[in-house]
Write a structure and sequence with these properties.
Layout: E1 3-5, E2 12-14, H1 27-42, E3 47-49, H2 58-67, E4 76-81, H3 88-102, E5 107-112, H4 121-133, E6 137-143, H5 147-156, E7 162-168, H6 180-187, E8 190-194, H7 205-214, H8 218-226, E9 232-234, H9 241-248, H10 257-266
Parallel strand pairs: 3-4, 4-5, 5-6, 6-7, 7-8, 8-9
Antiparallel strand pairs: 1-2
Helix pairs in contact: 1-2, 1-9, 3-4, 4-5, 7-8
The chain binds NADP nicotinamide-adenine-dinucleotide phosphate.
Length: 267
């Protein structure tokens, strides 16, 4: 799996990772979810995204099972605090509880799941920085923040820098390209795109044609397009082994400028 530097962290991270939303919600499907994440790890998808919200902590428990026995240094684990918990004390407690469920001593990035205004962002970011100082997270980041909110979050941090912003990014929703992507590139903040497969809604002729010509699948073409810039990462979620394999194979080719343009025009 191709890796690239994650924002200004200096850490190389797999461009394609693994999402976990809706994992850990149901005991009957847990075994398959753990197996899918393990297969992903074998294929180099070592960037795993989760959140205290997913399955009410269940997804973090599934991740714990999947990463058991895997060298910790070879993993890049990201989780998130719910805005309702994001007071100073609440953020510290939420992170400690996530680590307990994940069965690890630290996460790689700790994110605020979205901006809500319920707790002052300065309190949340101070807590994030305290967590980093205690070694409970290596880096801090945000999710679903616009440029103005990112500026406020960054201003509230002392020495720490925002490592990433995790945002909606798929072929039918490229809103981030207007302001957020240029801002993040200027500030050296990684963009992690979520819901990259858009529930199948990107299947336009142009994508299918490029896929056919390349001997790839339309989803591989989509994931490839969505990570075409050095600032971009993506975290598709897959519980089925054939989906994990397909997603892991999405970067074995480089889209030519005319193919990029054709897809660009189509959406
Ligand atoms: N920060 C946020 O607010 C936020 C919001 C949404 C999502 N996220 C994160 O981003 C991750 C990804 O987003 P998402 O789960 O919303 O959507 P997604 O990854 O775009 O789509 C997941 C769906 O696509 C299916 N799928 C995956 N690979 C496939 C393939 N190769 N062929 C056919 N179907 C495939 C999965 O099926 P199977 O599971 O059956 O394989 C699942 O139903 C989440 O899991 C979560 O970690 C973050």
């Amino acid at each position: 799996m191709i890796t690239r530097l994650f924002g200004a962290t200096g850490v190389a991270v797999p461009v394609i990772g693994q999402g976990t939303w809706h994992m850990g919600e149901n005991r009957r499907t847990e075994r398959a979810e753990i197996a899918a994440l393990r297969l992903g790890l074998e294929l180099g998808l070592t960037h795993i995204d989760t959140a205290e919200m997913y399955g009410d902590g269940g997804a973090e428990r599934v991740v714990a099972q999947a990463i058991k026995g895997h060298p910790r240094d070879a993993l890049f684990i990201v989780t998130k605090v719910l805005p309702s918990n994001a007071s100073y004390a609440g953020t510290i407690k939420a992170c400690e509880q996530s680590l307990e469920r994940l069965g690890i001593g630290h996460v790689d990035v700790y994110l605020v799941h979205w901006w809500s205004g319920r707790h002052p962002i300065a309190d949340t970011m101070r807590a994030m920085e305290a967590l980093a100082k205690r070694g409970l997270t290596r880096f801090v980041g945000v999710s679903n923040f616009d440029v103005a909110q990112m500026r406020q979050a960054q201003a509230a941090l002392g020495s720490a820098r925002l490592a990433c912003n995790q945002v909606l990014y798929h072929l039918r929703d490229r809103a981030i390209e207007r302001d957020l992507l240029p801002h993040c590139e200027r500030e050296k903040v990684a963009i992690v795109g979520y819901t990259p497969l858009a529930r199948g809604g990107f299947m336009r002729d142009e994508v299918v044609e490029v896929a056919k010509a390349r001997g790839r699948t339309p989803r591989q073409v989509a994931l490839n397009f969505l990570t075409r810039r050095a600032s971009l990462f993506t975290i598709p979620k897959a519980s089925q082994p054939e989906h994990v394999r397909e997603n892991a194979g999405a970067l074995d080719f480089t889209l030519a400028p005319e193919e990029l343009r054709a897809i660009d025009r189509a959406f």
